[in-house]
């Protein structure tokens, strides 16, 4: 048996998120179904980040224990040949038997893409959230600066999740203009349920001049979801990368 | 009655091209159906470039004569509110009554996007043609240079079209690398049936080293479709812009 790690990109538009659900198609269903085809048996796949319905990935990471049947340098090719076109394996490698895609992740990078053109870009309608009001990127950057570092991010967590602690460390939050898009890049130790979308929704309100940038600090300290802004739609989110200390 | 010119962008993935066809959904069907909703009567729409199945547009131009019911500055908004999300009106203006979107066009700009990454970019699978073999862009540029100017482009025309002359002028053909993409931009007086796709397919063979760049000159002079390369798939084509002398 070998422990395989694969890096997966997917267009989440047609899926009810990553994780298995009753009566709804998920990325996990499709991955496990196709891995089963290769190995002629059901193989459980562990994932780094359980993405929501409509959320995309460029660098999702999964791992699974499988018999040593397919040379690792052929694994991406073998899977891509049978996977649907909206899921692509970008990389495959053998990792130590103790490696676990979620538990061993030390950081994750998520992006959020806002289409800030006057009219929506038709080719990015599934990958960007269209906001026609021109956003003040400098005000958004100032607002974002209050979130850097270790904080209790409870105010930016959606209801319905149970976690031991709502403390997380945000290593960086870059906001970049790429006309007509504005791209937010979050690198953090971990993210609470819908945290990327709630932070983005709140920063959009700052960008529109509906909130002062300093309110972000007050919201954070208030630790109350009601203090923060609207949850931005899932289609703007992409899991860009999962970081590991070592893959030896 | 006013003559309205509108600039339209669309994702051609779900359409059988621009022009009306029996038993197949086209962009023209959808535009005319929605313009009919606005004016409560059928209005014939003239188009600049009849794009093929799967071909996209950022700057398609159409015009139509309609009663002076909707202020022109509200027309884009009114149409975008009822159009499906894969067709977006970018601009609307009133033009002289003699203006005709196709007859008055002096040039058109088409792009062709090649995804030259080792593995396909999942988010561009409908907008780019994936070629995993690394292409020699310099060789492609040399090949392209033989096509500039006025020529008989018969060798690069697909069968099944009847035109008075196969002479066309190619003002420019730029080839640009935007990792992992290679983008070809064609500006010409007009284009023969599938000309952009046949030129691209032939230049890809040059980029793969299967043909010498100088063969492009020989193919052009041979005036025989069999001399040119394969037709690249339609999904890589986008009508970027239609040029007019004046819109007064």
Features:
homodimer, 248 residues, alpha+beta, Alpha-Beta Plaits, ten-stranded mixed sheet
Q: Can you walk me through this structure?
A:
The structure is a homodimer of 248-residue chains. With 248 residues, chain A is of the alpha+beta class. Chain A folds into 2 domains: 2-103, Pseudouridine synthase I, catalytic domain, N-terminal subdomain (Alpha-Beta Plaits); 107-243, Alpha-Beta Plaits (2-Layer Sandwich), CATH 3.30.70. Helices cover 22% and strands 31% of the residues of chain A. Chain A has 5 helices and 10 strands. Chain A has helices at 27-39, 72-82, 137-145, 195-207, 215-222, and strands at residues 2-10, 46-47, 56-66, 87-95, 105-115, 129-130, 149-152, 167-178, 181-188, 237-244. In chain A, strands 1, 2, 3, 4, 5, 6, 7, 8, 9 and 10 form a 10-stranded mixed beta sheet that branches. The radius of gyration of chain A is 19 Å and the shape is globular. Chain A binds chain B through residues 9-11, 56, 76, 80, 85-90, 119-123, 125, 127, and chain B through 9-11, 56, 76, 80, 85-90, 119-123, 125, 127.
Mean pLDDT reading of chain A: 96
Low-confidence stretches of chain A: none
CATH architecture of the largest domain in chain A: 2-Layer Sandwich
Greatest contact between two chains: A-B, 19 and 19 residues
Counted up, domains of chain A total 2
Portion in beta strands of chain A: 25-35%
Largest β-sheet summary of chain A: 10 strands, mixed
What overall form of chain A do the CA principal axes indicate? globular
CATH superfamily of the largest domain in chain A: Pseudouridine synthase I, catalytic domain, C-terminal subdomain
What's the total number of strands of chain A? 10
Which secondary-structure class do the elements of chain A indicate? alpha+beta
Radius of gyration computed on alpha carbons of chain A = 19 Å
Calculate the terminal CA-CA distance of chain A, rounded to whole Å. Answer: 17 Å
Question: What's the CATH class of the largest domain in chain A, please?
Answer: Alpha Beta
């Amino acid at each position: 048996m070998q422990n395989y790690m694969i890096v997966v990109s997917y267009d989440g538009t047609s899926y009810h998120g990553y994780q298995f659900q009753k009566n709804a198609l998920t990325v996990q269903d499709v991955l496990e179904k196709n891995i089963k085809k290769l190995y002629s048996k059901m193989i459980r796949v562990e994932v780094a980040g359980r993405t929501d319905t409509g959320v995309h990935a460029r660098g999702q990471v999964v791992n699974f224990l499988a018999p040593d049947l397919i040379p690792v340098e052929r694994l991406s090719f073998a899977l891509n040949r049978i996977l649907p076109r909206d899921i692509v394996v970008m990389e495959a490698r053998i990792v130590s038997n103790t490696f676990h895609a979620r538990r061993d992740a030390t950081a994750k990078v998520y992006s959020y893409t806002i289409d800030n053109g006057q009219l929506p870009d038709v080719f990015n309608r599934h990958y960007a959230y269209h906001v026609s009001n021109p956003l003040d990127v400098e005000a958004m950057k100032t607002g974002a600066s209050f979130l850097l570092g270790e904080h209790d991010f409870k105010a930016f967590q959606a209801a319905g999740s149970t976690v031991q602690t709502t403390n997380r460390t945000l290593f960086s939050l870059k906001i970049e203009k790429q006309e007509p898009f504005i791209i937010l890049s979050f690198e953090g130790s971990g993210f609470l349920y819908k945290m990327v979308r709630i932070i983005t929704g709140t920063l959009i309100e700052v960008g529109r001049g509906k909130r002062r940038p300093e309110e972000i600090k007050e919201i954070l300290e208030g630790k109350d979801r009601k203090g923060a802004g609207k949850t931005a739609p899932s289609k703007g989110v992409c899991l860009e990368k999962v970081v590991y200390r070592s893959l030896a």
